[in-house]
From TrEMBL:
Pfam families: p450. Belongs to the cytochrome P450 family. The keyword Heme applies. Heme binds at C481. This is Putative cytochrome P450 oxidoreductase. One of its GO terms (molecular function) is monooxygenase activity. Keywords: Heme, Iron, Membrane, Metal-binding, Monooxygenase, Oxidoreductase, Transmembrane, Transmembrane helix. Its cofactor is heme. SUPFAM superfamilies: Cytochrome P450.
Amino acid sequence: MLTQGSLPLIATLSGVSLHTFIYRFGEWDTTSVLLVQIYTFIFVGGNLALYLDLLTSTGLGLSPVAFSSLCGYHVLGVYTSMLVYRLLFHRLRRFPGPFFGRLTNFYATTLSMNLQKPREVQKVHREYGDYVRLGPCELSIADPQAVKVIYGTQSSVTKGPWYTLLEPRVPLFMARDKQEHARRRKVWDQGFSTKALHDYEPRVSKYTDQLLQVIHKNAGKPINITPWFTYFSFDVMVDLSFGKTSNMLVDGTESYILRTIRTDMAKVAYFSHLPWLFPFTKRVPFLNSNYLRFWEWIANQISERAECEHERPDVFSWILNEYRQGLQLHQDTLNLHGDAHLIVVAGSDTVATSLTNVFCHLACNPAIVKELQSRLDALPDLESHWLAQIDLFDAILNETWRLQSPNPSGLQRVTPAEGLKIGDKFIPGNVVVQVPTYTVYRDSRAFERPDEFIPERWTSRPELVKDRSAFIPFGSGPYACVGKRLASMELRRVIAVILHSYDVTLAPGQSAKAFWEGQLDTFTLVAPSLELVFTRREQV
């Protein structure tokens, strides 16, 4: 017989049972708002019913205060069961790691608070080894062998819960279903084909010339090049996405949308280990104003692009045509908006940061600059097909991406139910795994002299690369970055045009060390201010 004295125990056990038999399985991140609504309904509804004497027939004589206490006991049961399970019984319990990391993802979140997570994770690996339990159900793996197993073409892993952050919008990059990703990827591949890239080249050259004019005006004196590279990359991607320009290179000012992207990407970095939090930020009025305004801007760009037919195809035209030929369901429209977001954000961030990092390396290595200039001087012109034949370009880019990876924290994956093996190490199934590229790309097991900028390791000194399979800055296989070739074309073009006319040095007072240490991880790498001096070459 139920008595009022037994109710706290029953409420506690109900919480333990709910966690043990339900919450312990599957992903609950996207249902966080629904769960809060259900618990709120039970709490408020129960108290209201007691206040109105609607539950007197139970004979328990509960008061609203007593009912509230029972709700507290239930929640206590859920969390007690969860913490005990994570600490003593979880399938990752035998992996080393910080104590609080075993209990909560808030530990991993603290590593991102200064946007220096790659360095913080590297410190953790130095203390605990290659395989570190960074969260209750998450392993950070700094073993070079893991790169091929987790991110390789034949990998059996799937994308993790982080990829739900933009839901209900699902851009290509966030598509977790492999078949859906493969279907949509075929459409994207058309927008980045060899012919398409050839068509884009004059438009890239247009903005390269505008960038060069900025350097002409500031020749011989210090210029903070970081924002100008950002304006260039954003102008290019808006043009190739929507057939228009954002005019940031011409105006010399940052647009509201670019500031919004920066702010939102920082939030993603801060809370990437707490994906259950994002459904709330999308719904709370004072938190979602920038979020709503950004998606309104995306919708307007798509609408304007759909209303006018351009003679020159762009990246988005392929995606838009596929959408028009389909059923145009509500989810299709949401995904279309997500794809537009992906083109603008991914395309502009990576190119801008890569350019800034490349030029810092070049400013610190004048011998490499001279060698590249001599090869450029020997070309009939600076068209992309000629630039692609200079292997030093790829060497410089690869070495820059090794030391300043576009995604320094690595990409999240989930192991298959049966688990997987990396060397002689078994990783249990259904756990989140991530390879921190910042750490692995500086591992002496994969690279000789890993902390040094040596482009020759990719050309004339291959012995400096011990494990080539550990280096995949843009992914591999079906999940490889679809825009890598376009990004490489942009980078070669800008580097070639500038170095053909100018020498480059660090400005007085500009410290390379301070620049490298000021890099921020906002999922994609963000470069700080870089003061350079561009001096006109005498022979040009």
